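Schema walkthrough. Field components (list of strings):
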Amino acid sequence: MTTPPPAEIGMALEDVDTPALLLDLDAFERNLDRMAKAIEGKPVKLRPHSKSHKCAVIGLAQMARGAVGLCCQKVGEAEAMVAGGVPNVLVSNQIVGRPKLLRLAALSKQAEWVGVCADHPDNVTQLDEAAGAMGTTLNVLVEIDTGAARCGVEPGQPAVDLAKQIDSATNLDFAGLQAYQGRAQHVRSYAERQAAADAGVALTRETVEGLKSAGLECEIIGGAGTGTFQFETAGGVHNELQAGSYVFMDADYGKNLNEDGGFFDDFENSLFVFVTVMSAPTEDRALVDAGLKALAMDSGPPAVADMPEVEFGRASDEHGILDISRTNRKVGLGDKLKLIPGHCDPTVNLYDWYVGYRGNRVEALWPIAARGMLR
Ligand SMILES: Cc1ncc(COP(=O)(O)O)c(C=O)c1O
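Field assembly_structure (string):
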């Protein structure tokens, strides 16, 4: 069941009910423009990850600025994006089990282009069978492990062997390589982050060359996230970038460092959890109406926007506890505050609506259609 929106179009921001997921539309659009500008004229395209936003309206805004399509992590996410009008989706993940495989194959008949990743010969066989059963052809990328130690076959010959199997399957087209170095994204030091990304690029290059020698061309060589996209762009091997968080930023990405030692500020915070102070029992403590059920805490607590001196300490299910001992500002009952999520993706997955605002006025209510799409 979808919850009703916490706001109405035209409403003043302070009247929005809480907790609510706010999107500062000016900041969001600047982030979209900055990414488009960063890769302008470069031999890479953007295929942003929809697991960050789970919203076809945002996906279409990315495509309007040049993205070739979207990445999705789950079949349900891909279904929601296609239903919302996104024509081109790559499931940048492994899909296992007949019900999901059949849904994926069926989806490929509704969209212009559907792709998926594989890292095991048995999965390739299953993908081929599902595509055959649904009377379609699936585009399959070989995922290689470029240092993240997550999914993926070893770069080099194992990847070439799997690509050959895909290429010779009746109902599959070999579409290229998935080469995402997830572990590099949040490495704080610029030099160390670059080194981890560059090592991934080198393994990807070696694999692309091996594929070429075997007569296999990669239409897509995809990877990169918000933390490393500039390195894969400079690496000259990847032709699709999969950054997702750049549209919102979050407190965790804000801790990465730039080349000059300053905090990573290529993009700005556009996503906030709007909360109300529901109790202020002592001089140094205020409680807000958002706890573990309204905020993902896996990457640390949220930051309080415009009040770095206020610390979000503990959270219980429905309480967030603020330390207000170091602020001169009065934080009292009924005050509304904006929190910058610690980790944007799992925070978004807790809400049904983006409340888009410009200045002080609500301008958009966008459904988070793929929220909870775990299958
Ligand atoms: C396969 C893949 N590509 C891209 C990304 C994008 O990451 P980010 O949101 O850090 O930009 C992720 C995130 O985990 C991912 O799993």
